[in-house]
Amino acid sequence: MKSNFYKSILVILSALFFSGNMLAQSNYRFHSHNDYAQDFPFWKAYIHGASSIEADIFLKKDQLFVTHAEEEINPDFTLENLYLKPLADLAKAGKLRKVQLLIDLKSEAKPSLKKLVETLKSYPELTKSDKISFVISGNRPKTTEYKNYPDVIEFDHQDLSDLAEADLSKVALISQNFRDYSVWNGLGRITAPELKKVEAAIKKAHDAGKPFRFWGAPDTRTAWSRFAEMGVDFINTDKPAEASAYLETLDARKFELKTSISVYHPKFDYDKNAKPKNIILMIGDGNGLSQISSAVFANRGELTLAQLKNIGLVKTSSFDDLVTDSAAGGTAMATGEKTNNRAIGTDKDGKDLPNLTEIFAEKGFLNGIITTDFVTGATPSSFFAHVVERDDSEAILKDLTKSNVDFFMAAGASDFSKIADQFIQKDISEFNDLENQTAVFLSENALADVSVRGDQFPEYVKKALQNLEQQDKPYFLMIEAAKIDKNGHINNASGIVEEMLDFDKTIAEVLKVADKNKNTLVVITADHETSGFGIMQGDLENGQIEGGFLTHDHTGTIIPLFSYGPGAELFNGVYENTEVFHRILKAVE
């Protein structure tokens, strides 16, 4: 008999379904192979959205047992107990979703089928439902005999050679042994000759108007993705929970760049021994090496950023945590000191720290901030504010009115009234001088995605640089691409790549100015990495990538830094994020 614990778990699982707490099926269907071997047969696959569930059965003493072999029979594991009764309960409760029960006959076909048909007569809520199909696999009768069985019974056809002449009216799907076509283990890429054979088998089934499944197939994430791309209708797996989670997010983790962006090739004709007149610090929020890599691959192997030669690696931990947030990460670069997460412009004890805009103002620099976030965002505010809590927007805006920031460009014009007395708001077309502290807004509220806003960000940066170049003072400019981080938090691979490509267009505009004046140091880095993003596979020729994620949060991964212009060599090596501040100041000394 089942233990009380096992019964209790089944009751809990049943309650989840009857209360409506079921996982939705993804755009890709998968088949729970060897389902009887799961911790909770039927339920584990069903709760994770399996479109097809396999029940291996063996007829013995007029009972249909769920087992792979006669010697493995468990008296409690009958087809009715594990599959038919739960399905019937769901149907009665109105909770049954569309599912295929693939019944793999391990005992002789005709007597097993006779018993199955007899058993199903006790479950009219299933046999009369359009939500469930009963498909016979394993030991099957001859194809010509399929028509002799009631309509409730369909078959898993396993022969590709007779599709033209066979009666397929009772065939629910076509299955093949993957090992007849390939030895691929599901890691890396399948070889081209084997891929051709695999795709040809799938096409034959589809040309016959039937869905397709491989058994004996590799059961890895890479394989699931490849099979989904090939059009396998039921992806075979022994890991329904993992396959469900992977396939449910597959589309959101894919990206294809239809048209490549142009790449600027820097001239490198500056005097590397000279002192820079101007400093431009560019921060891709959440922008780790994989985020950059994804944009490189999507853009067919090239980015403007990837043309740079001076490269460093930056450790990003905050004072009180291995993994920093944007506030502590921004503060480290703006002030040269580690602080606690959530703190902006203050040290570990809450005391104000001098920042780059304050220091450069004393040196006669103009100071500007450009961000795709609100100006009160953690990263931009690290360069002018002093608060112990990053969400204290009112205090941050108050500090902005007292700051040495000559202009800013940011999202969120709706909050402008709070600082209207200090900063004069201008449209980008009117931004032609810096006689007063000036605010230019990219949007009324939060900034739209790149697909909506187009090249707004690089164009605004270009306009700001034109203005700064007309002044007779040196300048410090902090530019943040904030939405790389935001897309990392929601695990949106497309958004990450699109925002990184937008950042690269912006980098191109900055490097063009640096090449023209030959006296600007450009430092490009991140405050931290977000999401543990990785490149799982892709197609360089077609600009396709598939990403994967470790988390929805920040990570402690070391991030890259690229530098260009006089003083760029100061930024080579591996160092703490606080060194960004110190090396910038060293460059202008």
TrEMBL record:
Enzyme class, spelled out: hydrolase
CDD domains, alphabetized: ALP, PI-PLCc_GDPD_SF_unchar3
GO biological process: lipid metabolic process
SUPFAM superfamilies referenced in this protein's UniProt entry, alphabetically: Alkaline phosphatase-like (SSF53649), PLC-like phosphodiesterases (SSF51695)
Cited Pfam families: Alk_phosphatase (PF00245), GDPD_2 (PF13653)
Record-linked PANTHER family: ALKALINE PHOSPHATASE (PTHR11596:SF5)
Entry-linked InterPro entries: AIM6_PI-PLC-like_dom, Alkaline_phosphatase, Alkaline_phosphatase_AS, Alkaline_phosphatase_core_sf, PLC-like_Pdiesterase_TIM-brl
Top-rank lineage group of the source organism: Bacteria
Active site: S326 (phosphoserine intermediate)
Name the record gives this protein: Alkaline phosphatase
Record note on cofactor: Binds 1 Mg(2+) ion. Binds 2 Zn(2+) ions.
Enzyme Commission number(s) of this protein: 3.1.3.1
GO terms of molecular function: alkaline phosphatase activity; metal ion binding; phosphoric diester hydrolase activity
Record organism: Zunongwangia pacifica
Family that this chain belongs to: Belongs to the alkaline phosphatase family.
UniProt keyword annotations, A-Z: Hydrolase, Magnesium, Metal-binding, Phosphoprotein, Signal, Zinc
Gene3D superfamilies: Alkaline Phosphatase, subunit A, Phosphatidylinositol (PI) phosphodiesterase
PROSITE patterns for the chain: ALKALINE_PHOSPHATASE
Positions annotated to bind Mg(2+): D285, T379, E480
Signal peptide (UniProt feature, chain positions): 1-24
Binding site for Zn(2+): D285, D485, H489, D527, H528
Cofactors required: Mg(2+); Zn(2+)
Keyword check for Phosphoprotein: yes
